[in-house]
Amino acid sequence: MKALTTLLVANRGEIAVRVMRTAKAMGMKTVAVYSEADANAQHVREADQSVCIGPAPVTESYLQVDAILDAAAQTGADCIHPGYGFLSENQAFASECEARGIEFIGPPNAAIEVMGDKARAKRAMIEAGVPCVPGYQGDDQSVETLVAEATQMGMPVMVKAAAGGGGRGMRLVNDASELESAIDLAQSEAQNAFGSSELIIEKAVMRPRHVEIQVFADKAGNTVYLGERDCSIQRRHQKVVEEAPCPVMTPELREAMGQAAVDAAKAVDYVGAGTVEFLLDEAGEFYFLEMNTRLQVEHPVTEMVTGYDLVEWQIRVARGEALPAEQDDIELFGHAIEVRLYAEDPAAGFLPSTGQIKLFTQPQGEGVRVDAGVETGDEVTPFYDAMVAKIITYGETREDARMKMRSALQKTALFGPENNRDFLIDVMDKDEFIRGDATTAFIGDNYGEAFSPRAIDSSDLAVAAATQHVVAMETHHSQAASVNEELLDWVSMGRVTDTKCYEANGVPQEVTLIPLTIGEYEVSVGDKTHHVTVSEMGENDLSAEVDGLMQRYHYVSEAPASLYLASSDRSALLADSTRIPPEAEDAAGGGTIAAPMHGQLLSIDVETGARVSKGQRIAVLEAMKMQHELTAPGDGTVVDIAAVAGKQIGAGDLIMVLELEGLESEE
């Protein structure tokens, strides 16, 4: 058995933190690597030692093999855990670790090489007798050949990067006229994300379940499967909700899929943790999708229903130990659900969001687990994936786990970047999810391209006004000398009347607050009047009774104007316009094209003076490892181009100005 004492985690965020915690529990020293943008990140704070490996962009830091291996040499690390993403499935990195005598906590180079290339993997699986989706995985990568193969299959098809995963370099094509554009975008995205533009084409299996099998193998060739995970709820081919076991699984189907997954692993002499992903159609037929030669994001649900620590298993296997359990010993008990808390704006088509985290409250309780990579005060930057945390719940039944998840999300607050917390709560309440009937079409069917949160109602505004009033009153009281609390809310002419104006649901709303006694207010919002009592108020949480109904809230007040407020099912940022100086109006109106987020402007696809049509692609922005097409909001002409392709650009920065037809001049 090999002695391993110092573990370097070649990753960042929640997975780096999660791996370090198990390593520390096993008595190992931990080493973090970080980019300049992550100098004060949580994974750096948690590590025993840390080394900076370069600037913020991943190509200059987390994908720099030599810099990471130099950090290992500097700190005496004898093993490296790659986490997921970045270099986790990079055969060259694993080879370099081996060459330098460092244990790579992952499978052998040959397995990574085969399974890391979707084309080679599919050919290997066909040879091993594993059921596969019909498609093209040939060497000829010319656009003409790819288009021809896809056309011959018939629409719809999936265009997929042969290397990597996580939904990058993947496009669903429903119409043959969209093929060339989809291939172009997929190749570009795959090249930027994985360093390879190779694609495969597959016949699209519509409305399937995405079911994956967790496999594990030791160096002696013993291979087992640890049940399945249902990862069907996805948007843009990125998983959002995962659960174990799959709601429609039968013992017979589990055994068949488990054996197919073991066969797939044995076909490439696999070692360590791996996941074999399948599409499961409505008839109960399953097809090999890909194998991820690493630990999966959603591994916690498997840990919850088996009782095993999969990172501990990885380290033990790397040391040369036998698997901690044989197939007959592995049982599944209870049910677990995981959701991914993303810094994104569901109301704006789930676009990634960035910024400082003003408050992050993590739910606690029996059967609740949070794997997070951030804390209050940290920064979500545009350089990395939009996921900030995973929330996992466990129950004896699926309904127990669902109800615990619903409660956990209601107790969560993430203020600063836009995020999908309210969206996840809504998912938990959908009848289709409650029944366990969700397929990969779930988000499209239920939400389309965006999620519309519950409207901000008058009681929300009443609580917001009371909260801001109390915060301001207490601030003034703390700054005043020897003022009796009984005189709060009074001036020489009597009680203070506080008027605010919030923009709610796109409409200005005037709110008038009249103090009755300390902490008790009459609040008028339009033609509605509410009685609000603030009974308990902490630094970032409060209890307020509105018209006899008591509720807990999280809040962050940014004097003098802004308030973040979260109830059990609604998060909002409210600004009091009576305390905001007027801003200059947008001169170009609807013709202004601004960056919706921080990122790199990959291309500008029009020239000044060019005519554009509504929906036409005019630029491509890359942010958080995904490429986003910016399209013309209407027919018109390009008046001015203010940005430069190939450069980083900030959220809200002007890209170009269009003169749109049908918009009358105000001059």
Automatic annotation (TrEMBL):
SMART domains in the cross-refs: Biotin_carb_C
PANTHER family in the record: CARBOXYLASE:PYRUVATE/ACETYL-COA/PROPIONYL-COA CARBOXYLASE, METHYLCROTONOYL-COA CARBOXYLASE SUBUNIT ALPHA, MITOCHONDRIAL-RELATED
Keywords linked to the UniProt accession: ATP-binding, Biotin, Ligase, Nucleotide-binding
Species this protein is from: Candidatus Paraluminiphilus aquimaris
Protein name as catalogued: Acetyl-CoA carboxylase biotin carboxylase subunit
Domain spans labelled ATP-grasp: 122-319
Record-annotated Lipoyl-binding domain positions: 582-659
Reported cofactor(s): biotin
Organism domain of life: Bacteria
Upper lineage: Bacteria, Pseudomonadati, Pseudomonadota, Gammaproteobacteria, Cellvibrionales
Residues covered by the Biotin carboxylation domain: 3-448
